[in-house]
């Protein structure tokens, strides 16, 4: 990559569009790259990494930029203060007045900044997380402001983890077994895997280690009737199907035809024959009534703010609001209540989000249990321990945090219907 005014201009244009917060940042970037074929692989890497650095550290970078907070200044501050570039490297795009404010920006220690600015969080989100304690929030924010690693999940229908690790090593791809998930692999870097034989034949899928643990909380058995109630593109569906050894019947419900369409090629690679994708109009779709009380296991990976995935989607902390979270809370409660109707006596219901907020997690579960006397909470960490997954997590629910567990932020509660 050669750093030129033109390349910097691409980063500035892409960032300017991202900062409108109309579309997800990764979608903005994908569209920008599709319309600028002249950008090579390294050029795209520079644009993506620098823009995402600004999104992660937007508040502190804004404070460093002084009175003039523009995309250009934010990019320069990110390169100079965060990524360690020097003035000589920045020379192709420097203006005469830039050296002075950049020196001041780098010297700024942030003593006068509010805790929310130091953590690069909006005020409302910092206040919601403050129940964790100032030190814990600072550690959490620091972890969220670092890029996520690339995790893979081995498909036990097609491969053993040790064999996959050996193959990756033979191909020069540095990787290690994940600490928590017995099917997980963490890569040192982020190579393109779409054409790798292990991916093509369905032996591996890309899936965060924390997301993998949700499947072990559902813990479906062979021959059971199981539902992934908010299946999306089906990452967890595929894990559940593999844990069932492709027996029984596994429904993948979702309201979005496009998401279910994205499941089809993954399903074809997986070798599973027990998965039945089914689009529903909503959680109140009449076709669900015919299935009431028939399922042994139901997973509800509910629509949520996604604030546990800020390592991957840093724009979410600027796009979400207290109002949008409140709207999600109503949806989450409705979906959980509807999914519960599918569970047979003695069956299991798992409610999960990739959110950090009590309002989307414990509060939803507490409201559900108050209204649904037939369900009781089960100790989720203990359930994982019995499967050989040792996890340090206080309380009955599973709460994964990036600074403690090295995963995305996840919450999961295991609820069982009494016989």
Indicate the percent of residues in helices.
40-55%
Distance between the termini: 64 Å
What general form does the structure show?
globular
- Provide the residue-averaged pLDDT: 95
CATH class bucket of the largest domain: Alpha Beta
Indicate the CATH topology of the largest domain: Rossmann fold
Q: Architecture of the largest domain, according to CATH?
A: 3-Layer(aba) Sandwich
Low-pLDDT ranges: none
The CATH superfamily label of the largest domain reads: Vaccinia Virus protein VP39
The number of distinct β-strands equals: 12
Strand content: 15-25%
Biggest β-sheet description:
8 strands, mixed
Structural class: alpha/beta
Number of helices: 21
Overall number of domains: 2
Question: What's the quick description here?
Answer:
With 419 residues, this protein is an alpha/beta fold. 45% of the residues lie in helices and 15% in strands. The strands form two sheets. Strands 5, 6, 7, 8, 9, 10, 11 and 12 form an eight-stranded mixed sheet that branches. The chain has a four-stranded antiparallel sheet with strand order 2-3-1-4.
Could you characterize what this model shows?
α4 packs across α5. α15 (257-270) links the parallel β6 (249-254) and β7 (275-279). Strands 5, 6, 7, 8, 9, 10, 11 and 12 form an 8-stranded mixed β-sheet that branches. Strands 2-3-1-4 form a 4-stranded antiparallel β-sheet. With 419 residues, it is of the alpha/beta class. The chain contains 21 helices and 12 strands. The longest helix has 19 residues, at 322-340. It folds into 2 domains: 5-113, no CATH class; 209-417, Rossmann fold (3-Layer(aba) Sandwich). The mean pLDDT is 95.
């Amino acid at each position: 990559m050669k750093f030129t005014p033109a390349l910097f201009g691409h980063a500035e244009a892409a960032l300017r569009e991202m900062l409108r917060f109309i579309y997800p940042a990764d979608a903005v970037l994908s569209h920008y790259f599709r319309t600028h074929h002249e950008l090579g692989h390294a050029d795209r890497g520079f644009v993506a990494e620098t823009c995402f650095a600004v999104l992660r550290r937007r508040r502190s970078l804004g404070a460093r930029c002084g009175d003039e907070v523009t995309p250009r200044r934010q990019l320069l501050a990110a390169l100079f203060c965060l990524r360690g570039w020097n003035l000589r490297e920045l020379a192709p795009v420097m203006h005469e007045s830039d050296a002075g404010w950049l020196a001041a920006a780098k010297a700024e220690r942030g003593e006068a900044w509010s805790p929310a600015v130091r953590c690069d969080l909006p005020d409302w989100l910092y206040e919601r997380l403050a129940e964790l304690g100032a030190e814990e929030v600072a550690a959490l924010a620091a972890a969220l402001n670092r890029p996520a690693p690339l995790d893979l999940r081995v498909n036990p229908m097609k491969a053993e983890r040790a064999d996959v690790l050996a193959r990756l090593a033979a191909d020069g791809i540095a990787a290690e077994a994940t600490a928590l998930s017995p099917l997980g692999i963490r890569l040192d870097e982020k190579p393109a895997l779409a054409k790798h034989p292990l991916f093509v034949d369905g032996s591996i899928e890309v899936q965060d280690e924390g997301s993998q643990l949700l499947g072990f909380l559902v813990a479906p058995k062979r021959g059971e009737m199981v539902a992934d109630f908010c299946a999306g593109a089906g990452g967890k569906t595929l894990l559940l199907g593999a844990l069932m050894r492709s027996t029984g019947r596994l429904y993948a419900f979702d309201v979005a035809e496009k998401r279910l369409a994205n499941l089809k090629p993954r399903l074809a690679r997986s070798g599973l024959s027990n998965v039945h994708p089914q689009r529903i109009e909503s959680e109140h779709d009449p076709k669900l009534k015919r299935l009431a009380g028939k399922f042994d296991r139901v997973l509800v990976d509910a629509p949520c703010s996604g604030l546990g995935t800020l390592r991957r989607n840093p724009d979410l902390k600027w796009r979400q609001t207290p109002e949008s979270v409140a709207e999600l809370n109503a949806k989450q409660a409705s979906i959980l209540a509807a999914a519960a109707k599918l569970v047979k006596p003695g069956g299991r219901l798992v409610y999960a989000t990739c959110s950090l907020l009590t309002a989307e997690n414990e509060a939803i579960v507490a409201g559900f249990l108050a209204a649904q006397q037939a369900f009781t909470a089960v100790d989720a960490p203990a359930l994982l321990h019995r499967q050989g997954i040792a996890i340090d997590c206080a309380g009955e629910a599973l709460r994964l945090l990036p600074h403690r567990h090295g995963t995305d932020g996840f919450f999961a509660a295991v609820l069982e219907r009494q016989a």
